[in-house]
Amino acid sequence: MTSLVLGALALAAAVFAAPIDDRDTLREELSAWKASGAGVYAAANGLFPEHVDGASEDAELAVFAASKAAAIALQEAHPLAQFSVDTPFAMMTSDAFASWVAASRPARNASALPESSKGISLATNSVDWKKSGCVAPVKDQGGCGSCFAFSAVAATESAYCLAHHRRRTLFSEQQTLSCGPGDGCKGGFEFESLRWIASNGLCTSETYPYTNGQSATAHQCQATCQKLPMPFLDVPLLRGEDTLEKALNTQPVAVAVAAGNSAWQLYKRGILTGGCDGTIDHAVLAVGYGAAESPFFVIKNSWGNRWGEFGFMRLLRGVGGTGLCHIAEDISYPVLRKPHNNLNQKWRYDPGTKQLKHLTHAGFCLDMGSDEGTRAHLYTCNRAIVLQIFDRVSTLL
Q1: What is the DSSP letter of 228?
Q2: Do 16 and 126 share a domain, yes or no?
Q3: Could you say which of 66, 97, 188, 294 is the most buried, measured as most Cβ atoms within 10 Å of its Cβ?
Q4: How confident is the model at residue 111, as a pLDDT?
Q5: Residue 161: active-site member
Q6: Beta-carbon count within 10 A of 354 CB
Q7: What is the greatest pairwise CA distance in the chain?
Q8: Does the keyword Lyase apply (predicted)?
């Protein structure tokens, strides 16, 4: 990666030694980038480093030229992927981008690391949880180092959805960030947040929306929303590429990656095959695996849908150990409780309303519908519906 960066700088220097017509072309391209969705987003979220924002035109052109040169060098080194300045991070130097990413995840004590598996993932099938209805849309952490909260909540949303007949509920990253473990916008660990969510429950994003998108200081915890309990037994912390593959056969999985590099900064599409050998500094959600030109894992990021494949990325699978970009160094996910078949563990009788309320489907009651004969089904709680009122429940519970 060092040689690649030096090559990019050499190419950028060549741009400034080129005829004035080439500089005019670069100036036009930079102007077009600033007016693009990526450029507008970058300006709104403070993704212009301090030494570039408001500086001379030459300084801006130098950074843009370096990003263009890095994209060309990356393309030559990793032809299965495409790299471009059509990204919100094009006007960040490689060092500034690395620092921005690293702010999301502090270093971890080696004694806390899970035991490594040396197995290589070899599955020939494919898994795509995006098609399940249990992967929430790509979200955007903005200028706060809250990737750990987004990764944990994404894993929570998928697990909760799978436990509730694929009925998707969006949960609160802001509550996880402001009230849970970690150091706010200075970073944290997704597996610690997942364990906190499993123990404490979580509010929905509707009742506790994300407000830290344009702030680098986590907002104070608000305790006014009603948390939903989680049907989770445990949150293991595992390691190994083959372990990740097995976990993805069951559900989407929170993982940590080494993302503070030019390969992630300028990634546009395709299968990333290298350029990310640093330490883990970012958390995402793994949502599947498959094969095209090469085997790959699929991750969902929290940098909005202007980055990568509409917010997703494919990484080479089958390298063994902790995988490419260390995608399998920290693997965590909620282990779901097995459903019980007896009625008493699914319903709670409310003597005040005389209704049988579902324990895991908030706001839903047992309704003895009378259409085409009496039949029991789940329906929105409504005391005005006579067939939801039960004076005696001893024969049911």
Answers
A1: B
A2: no
A3: 188
A4: 46
A5: no
A6: 14
A7: 89
A8: no
Q: Is residue 395 part of a domain?
A: no
Task: Let me know whether 150 and 218 are in one domain.
Answer: yes
Say if 349 falls within a structural domain. Answer: yes
Catalytic annotation, pick one of 212, 261, 282, 381: 282
**Is 301 known to be catalytic?**
yes
Question: Bridge-partner residues for 315, per DSSP?
Answer: 272, 297
On the question of pLDDT at 393 being above 90, the answer is no
* pLDDT grade for 279, boundaries at 50, 70 and 90: very high
Query: Looking at residue 114, which CATH number applies to its domain?
Result: 3.90.70.10
Query: DSSP secondary-structure letter at 140?
Result: B
Q: Same domain, yes or no, for 106 and 70?
A: no
Q: Which residues contact 116 (CB under 8 A, 6 or more apart)?
A: 239, 240, 321, 322
Say yes or no: 83 and 192 in one domain: no
For residue 389, the model assigns a pLDDT of 85
Domain count of the fold of the chain? 3
Residue 394 lies in a domain: no
Mean pLDDT of 84-108: 91
Task: Respond yes or no: is residue 200 known to be catalytic.
Answer: no
d(CA 204, CA 144): 20
CA separation for the pair 97, 88 (Å, rounded): 11
Do 377 and 291 lie in one domain? The reply is no
Q: Which residue among 301, 325, 365, 381 is the active-site one?
A: 301
Reported pTM: 0.79
Question: Which of 147, 185, 203, 276 is an active site residue?
Answer: 147
